[in-house]
Specification:
Largest sheet: 9 strands, antiparallel
Low-confidence stretches: 1-21, 26-40, 47-199, 331-378, 626-642, 657-680, 1161-1185, 1458-1478
Mean pLDDT: 77
Strand order of the largest sheet: 13-12-11-10-9-8-7-6-14
Radius of gyration: 38 Å
Helix content: 25-40%
Number of strands: 41
Length: about 1500
Amino acid sequence: AQAPSLVLPNSRSARAERFSEEQHSLLLAAMTGSRRSPPLPAAAQRKLGCSRREILCGTVLGAAGATLHVLCLGDSRQEAAVGAVFALPASSGSVHLRGAVAAAQVPGATVDLVAALPSAPAVASSSSSYIAAAGAVTVSAAALLTGARKVAGKRAHNGRRRTGRAAGGVLKNIKDFFSQKLVGDSQSDTAADDGSTPAEGKRLLVNSTQAVGQPFVGEYQEQPFTRNDRPVYQKLGVPANSQAVYLLFNNAGQWAFTPHVDGRADGWAYVPDTAASAAEITASFDIWDGASWVPDTTLQVRDKAAAIRQKAEAAAQATASASVPQGQREPQQQSRGAAQEADAAATVRNEAPQTEAVKLPEEMSSLSSLYWKAHWKSSERCLINWVPVPEGLAGQGLPIHPGVKRGVLPNGMRYVILKNAMPPQRFEAHIELHVGSIDEEPHEQGIAHMMEHVCFLGSRKRERLIGTGSRSNALTDFQHTIYHIHAPVKLEDGRGMFLPALEALHEIAFVPEMLPHRIEKERKAVLAEMQQVNDMEYRIETWTLSGLHETNKLGSQFPIGKEEQIKAWQQKDLRAFHEKWYYPGNATLYVVGDLDEEEIIDGIKKVFEPAPARHEPEPGKAFLEPVWGSGSEDPRSLFRRKLGKTRPEQLHNFSLPMIGTYDVFTEAAAFDLAKSEKPWQGPLRIFRNELLEGLQLNFYAKAPVRPLKTLEDIRHLVAVRILIGVLQFRIVSRYSSNHAPVQIDHSDSFREGCAVTSVTVNADPRDWRNALACVVQEVRAICDYGITESEMNRYMDAMLKDVEKGVAENDTVPSEDHLNFIMTSDVFDHVVMHPEQSHQAFQKVAPTVTMEQVHVTAKWMLGFLGYYGKAAAPPTTAVVVCTPTQVFQEHDNTWAPFQITEAEINDLLLSVPDKSKEEALNQVDVPDSLLKLQLHKLIGDNPIDKMTAWRACSRKVDDATGIVQLMLPNGAKVNYANTTNESQGSMRFLVPGGRSADTPDELSAAMVGIRTISESGAVSTFSREQIELFAVSNLMSVHLDLNLEFSYIDANFSMTDNGLVAVLELLHLLFQEPRWELPAFVRAQQAYKAQAYAVQKSLEQSTMDRLMRIMYDDGRVSEPRVEDLNKLTLAKVRKAVCGQLRPQDLEINLVGDFEGKSAQKKAGVEGGLSTGKHHEDADGEAEVFEIPAAARERRLRELDEALWKYLGSCPPTNVEQSDFNRAPQICRGPQMPPESRWRTAHLEDSDERAVANIGGGAPNRWGNGDIYHAECMKARNFTWDAPGSEMKDHPLYPSMCLLAMREVVNTRLFSTVRDSLGLSYDCSFELSMFDRLEAGWYSCTVSAHPSRIQEAVEAAKGVLQGVRKRPISEFELSTARRTLMRRHETDLQSNEYWISLLTHLQYDNRKDISCVRDIDMMLQRLTWRDVQNAYLTLLTDADQLFVSVSTAGPGSSYVSGGAAPASVSTNAPVPKQLLEVD
């Protein structure tokens, strides 16, 4: 076996030798024999340099400076030898492990070196380590075997032995690793390498008075073997967590302190002295201090026995001398006596280790740390040296939000309140019970979720809130059960709603009825929910969690529960769980809203103080404060409320903060040479399912949450945010596509109670290697070289602007968002700050954040992937791969098997080449402006006069709404409204067309064309990377898309720093000079093909697509098909898009604070903190900041000028406009056979599910349908005038009636199908509500168990058709009206909703300004007759209904009924397994 030698630069000398082929054969022969086999011949022993017993005792064999070749270990279960041969060919950089086992049960099997050992911390403490760059494998065999034998002996004594996972490693039993104390038997003089009791050997005493020599001070035991004809000594009393320390004569002719027992020229300290015994060393040792070799002239090595004899002799002489008077001694005798006394004193000192003689420097207190710093040169890139904390940051705490008030009731219930007047006269009340699925016993899996259902829906007081404009809901996750109510402060009649809402929450949490009939209803609902949620996305999530949290219940005990247990629980079981967890001391109430603080606190006390305290930890004290970190049972555990009862900690297998720093090294840093023959870097799980379309690789590393309490914590957060932004862009820029399928995140998980760093790579299964290699290379490059100054400045500026935006938007943040932020912060013990306080904190720490700190943060956060396979790299917490079992091959239209293995993934991760520093830090030139050089040419001479004349004759303003309407010189129409909702502006460019403009032979052309522009991402002469960085620098985003009626471009932009001009420049070039690139077209086409295949594999999407194909014989309304996509060319899609994106056809809608009210308000605050108390003035009116008329007019003029300059300058195009007036026509149901109107399908899957869609014809927003719909309405003598409403001529009348009718139908579906019959967890009713096309449909979606799906469909049909027999009541209308009005009121606070209100105002339809102004008025004046009449516009007769039903489960896929195209078969020609888990 040929192996390269290892020569360390710090060694004075080293010589390389290699094993011969004969030696190699002898080693194999020695391994494959049993303990009872004859010993090796003497000649063989001489050639090997050792005896066979030494081999079986675990001795590491190797020549001077060469790599390790052989390690043999005794198997603790049987009298056989387990061996492993290591060989490192010079021609390759990879390490190969081959094993031979002479056990009868597993002859010839490959051996997993560490998995073969008992899984215990004592074994992990000194296990194998791998040095990739240096090309060496080292194993502390003696320590491994000693630890293994001791643990094995203890387990044998207990009469049991635990079997580890086959793919286990150093951390295979992570629960034991974290829960047990990492202590074990120290290396003692009674423990030899083979576990036997050696003959008594010499002991040495080592002493030093210098700090650098302190790690070696102590007592050493001679070992029963030699190195280079000299004895080997091992230090006694070394902690189990430390490296073994040997004193031996190495192959370089040096006495050395080293962790290696094989004699290699490697270690911490050495002396070039050839003394035959260590006690005879006279020269001084040189010791590595982490930076250089330092001589220690005080380090002494003495024979213990000789020292004891010398001590006795010195003591005797001292006694004799003491009997002679001082004056009678000869001078020479006096001198000799003093010397002997001094020697005796020194001997006494040497008898006990002087470990505290000199205080150790912090960086040298760990031998393992010293070793890593000294010799693992290849791992230095992984090590972390944190940048010193600037003075004052670490100790300076963060300010607390002055508006957040906290308290505790006498019964232990906590409460947190905040006054916030957005939306006005509304409030949020949430009560959190600190209990979730991980608190359930094994027989209670799912009972927390079941309890939530029973308590919430069984509350009579909650039911009384229905119809008051309130909304309520509940959720259960791993740690929390939360019930929440959103309600008005007062009703129209003056009745207050705060106390009724609190009373409902009190009943839900502390006095639920839990009636038997409600339990049965909710049992059915929970079982139906279990079926509904079990889609592929949910399964991927649970698979991921099972890998990420294999050490605690988060990976196995999901909130949905176990079906067999849910079916069995009775009332007594629920009451027992309620008694255990639902009590005031385990609850926190959060209230945020437009209420006075005193009113909130008084209401809380009035309603909740009577709730009796339970589970008091001590008399008179009903609660304990929350604990975090060192106060917890385990510092790395979840943050959980500490109770007066036992609550088990949920231990995490963390990786990030424990590995790779200069002062923190743990056993987790070691890795296992697993059976894959590659370094073990954490568990890798592969989940296979044939219904998956793409391949997803997820890499996770967990860390304890870092509570934000000081300015230093904020500084760390800033570095993390900058790092993620830079890396995400770098990876995106590596992809040809503008849609790079890579997500990088580091965030605190509310439901999991830890911080998670995740890198997710989505890839085509056929190209996963390139996709993954790209990501790994960029991650490693940022870990190696950090970021550039321009990147630092760009992302720092963007982040500070984002924080500043939070200040401007604080008064527009809804109460619900405030509440959720406070609740989440409490879970992690973060300090809750006001946005302005947060902004000030970020501004203060920003100058202290350096490029070096971001670089260090990259190693800390991303080293688990960037340095995968390096010894010093933190292991990943989990690698989860989700893969299909087959891929579709277009060239022959067949499905081919697809396989990916752990070995392939490891091979790729270890073979990705490094980037050079020049490549990694190569920067893209970011333009300051996109049109600076072209502007004069665009607008010509005298632009001010031209703009002024145009503005004077084009501008119209509606006084009631403030909406401004313009017509640009090129014919484009503009609508904009001024709001202070958000600190950023929003814009939508709209052109008629969309998919409705597709011709039959060019279906999906516009869709693929729009995606092609997006895939390219380049305009004019600017590259995609330049445009993306331009967007980052100017805080803007642009998104292109289309629907059936329109193609549109959505943009968000900053209202400061020229943000509007920047986005207008980009949009100008997008219309004038888009880049039509063939590779971008191919990517867009492939993306939609992949989507088409994914639709066929999705139960929900394929069912809905099948319904649309039943209702419409028109490919424009259904999902694109592969055969249609294959017909497209770049020329066709370009023509389709250019026929729509014509400047003269544009409608431009803008919303933002164009008048500058937010800026004026911020200036008026002058640094004071606004806590959202808008209604605290004496007169009760909100504070209004007046803008001077001149300033307001100037700002609006600048806006109009920018629109005229950048968009009005786009000349009209001569391209022929697409034909977009061909509305789709619904099929005539009565003319179709029943089997064509009802389709059923089955999708082969491992789990059973079912979903159904019911559909039919309906009008558009303005009350008009297609030709067949119009014929039906004429046959029914339908007219919108029938109810005689005074509002019948208002443009909004049909849409308001239809929306109210939709709310009523949804309510009836829930109460009937879900609540009364228990057939479905959820069912919904939707209307298409087109704006331009005279067409439309409705659809009803219902899910259930396959055995009950037909029953659920009939029940849903009964509700849809039953509205005619049971007319809508005034109460139902009142409830729907309040829901719509409150929704409208809330939505008015968002730019997105305002954009929808402005859209189509200048198109040729019925919409005008009154459709924005009169929504509330129209809803108030609706009657039940208006809504009942609107119901008649739905085609719900039996022969007008279309039904698509799909089931999933075992059995071959099929589609029955009619001639609709069946889903492409995924049946493979080879045997397959529906679900496979590696």
